[in-house]
């Protein structure tokens, strides 16, 4: 039985995935919905089970099987066949065969479309149902179904007179034609042509996603009014077979594959009418073959749209595709916003300062001299002494300048794209305007992200074109070549690989900054003119305590004697996380040389791991005396789901809830040696800027690592001692 522990989760997810969800309760509601017609429900269940066991015995990736990615298409095929054909042994065999076939078709399209980063959606269902509909014309022993004639009998057997009365009551409610059509369209997604099923589906959709529920209504009514505008016949019966295309497109492109915001809602005003035109025209073609179009328009438009977005060179209209699918429009939105707040807009790859020690920004963005127009997003760095001078003696020679001949470091991992290394250094006060950038190196970090370091010393550049380099590698030395009267380092980020390319506004990650009498640790930022900046110098104790090594275990003992074990693991997508052996909760984290960030949590929110996730949400390994780290926590990570219902509805347009994190370091300097370190902090839940609740916590760290961890909320206090790390 333990080997089949995955089956219930995979089963419910297969139903929920019809609406892009992995919500268990939504899946249960949809499963119950299919049993409004018992024969439909049982054949759908058989088809899903066949697909899941096919995936299991083929040895497919368990996560994909559990998520229902291979089950929902088979579900639709099984339900569709039971609607069209009479119940019997032949239909049962056909459903089992189709369940297996649908998995193979899904795998084929996963390979074909996956190369382009596109989902296979319900294409396997459409192809298989068409294949079987065409083939069945030769199956003389397989009779057509009279499904729907005996539905009240089926309901009575399933739930007695109460369920029959409820079904009739819902269907007799006097509703506007458009509302009936909307409910029929929802039910039609699972081949249920009745208002009762539509009501069940809408309740499930509301439980799954408030944004998804609103989008379903929004998308449907755009289509409804477009049909009215064109004068196209729009009856409840005919529309219910295709109306779900507009509902699914609105959810998919309004909030599931694209982060929901004003732009996604506005884009639906154009996408839905396009889908209507495509759907109407396709129906005329498929009528020639006596085949329904089902969800074909939905698949065509979604794939065309997502594929088209991949050719953008900027995101000027604010349509951001999902980089970590959370299976919910709300979760996608909250995590995306939180990621931007924490790590910078459009900065998925961290770029670090390209030098050792503390340097001064002698020209920043929109500088007074050369950082203008297309080249305005750049920095010039020099070293200053305590008197604010950049040179010793009279400054007549390049060697008098503190930054001259200092090492220049790679700001991130990458490949050397372009370099120039044979330009003579200028004598002080002169410039080489013909070779404006001087000796330079351009490093490719990803598509459309390059760094350029210029005015380097002749002959100092170490790597060659095509060499792979790692963050922190020495790549050259500061010189005085090109348009440079005094030694300095020019640093910029750009979208193209050429020396002289236009700059882009891209932040620097994890650096200390002293500016206008204040010292701060910046997770991401743009250093200003005259700011003093330096890279983090990690404290050994802190780094040892929070640098979780894959394969290690962290063992705790709570104040009541409970032993808890966490494992440090990495998943199929190379995400690192802590796994609680007892609760199976996961706390995902991102670790670099200077900082540990927790980024996501799944599991029991009463567990010690969740409390640790909140308390250690951001840990800097380097610090100054009295440093206060501040960060923001995604709303859905700190508020209970029942508390954010209203926020969910308006989240794409306005967010009034906020989670704040504050961590205080001791009143001592960075160079603490091996003295014990106590970190204290608090979490704040806010609504409209006012504090609602707060949690407090602290850590004790010594030379051996973490000692204990304490967390206190409004009702309880938890103390855990680390007994192995």
From TrEMBL:
Record field: transmembrane: 26-56, 68-85, 91-109, 116-135, 203-227, 239-258, 265-282, 288-307
CDD domains: M23_peptidase
Keyword Hydrolase: no
Record keywords, A-Z: Cell membrane, Membrane, Transmembrane, Transmembrane helix
Family note: Belongs to the urea transporter family.
First-listed, main subcellular location of the protein, grouped into a coarse class: membrane
Organism per entry: Shivajiella indica
Keyword Magnesium tagged: no
Topology within the bilayer: Multi-pass membrane protein
Domain M23ase beta-sheet core: 406-494
Name of the protein this chain belongs to: Urea transporter
Localization (cell): Cell membrane
Origin: domain of life: Bacteria
